[in-house]
Design brief:
Strand order of the largest sheet: 1-2-3-4-5-6-7-8
Structural class: alpha+beta
Shape: globular
Mean pLDDT: 79
Order of helices and strands: HHHHEEEEEEEE
Oligomer: single chain
Helix content: 25-40%
């Protein structure tokens, strides 16, 4: 997301984050953006609604990727985006901008803990709070789960990002919170785009 843009998306998203009132807030904000010919704003809000609203990602949904190799290629690379607070929380950098450099590999032991994920994800991340380590899982169904923890901390102390892939738009989004948090108890949402 463009620097300085996240607070505006955050404001609109907070009002309609859980698709309250049948998505009325999203509908009105997207319509206003379109009428003002703010195509990028309209696209980001549409994508946020699609990826970050109140539904839970499911690992056994129909495949979005034709193979594990396609999934691995899609994940691998540089990502930029923002994490948004449910209640508009404080942060040093008001943009909420976060970057991630990710690598992915076919899952070792095919998801040995019984969850049956398809790819292991690892990498690094940076934002106004410092440098972070990323470890995660991805499914050909499009479900993604990342643990993002401070480089001087431990994985157990990190935040869990749970969401969906949008292969066509080279985007992923969902919600973040403590480990195993569900949408209702999350701290907010996230939306990232792959570039390069």
């Amino acid at each position: 997301m463009d620097k300085g843009f996240a607070p505006l998306v955050e404001l609109a998203a907070n009002m309609g984050m859980r698709n309250a009132r049948g998505g009325l807030h999203y509908n009105k904000t997207i319509a206003a953006a379109k009428s003002m010919k703010l195509e990028r704003t309209s696209n980001i809000l549409t994508e946020h609604r699609m990826l970050c609203a109140d539904s839970e990602p499911v690992a056994d949904a129909p495949a979005m990727f034709s193979s594990v190799e396609d999934l691995v290629d899609w994940v691998r690379g540089d990502w930029t985006g923002a994490y948004l607070y449910e209640g508009g929380g404080d942060r040093k950098d008001l943009t909420g901008r976060k970057t991630m450099m990710l690598k992915a590999f076919r899952a070792r032991d095919n998801g040995a803990d019984g969850e049956g994920w398809d790819a292991d994800v690892e990498g690094t991340s940076g934002d106004d709070m410092g440098k972070w380590v990323v470890k995660g899982k991805a499914w050909v169904s499009g479900k993604i789960v990342f643990r993002i923890f401070h480089e001087e901390g431990s994985e157990e102390q990190g935040w869990e990002y749970t969401g969906f892939a949008s292969p066509v738009r080279r985007a992923c989004g969902g919600y973040w919170g403590i480990r195993n948090a569900e949408r209702e108890t999350s701290g907010g949402t996230f939306l990232f785009y792959r570039f390069g």
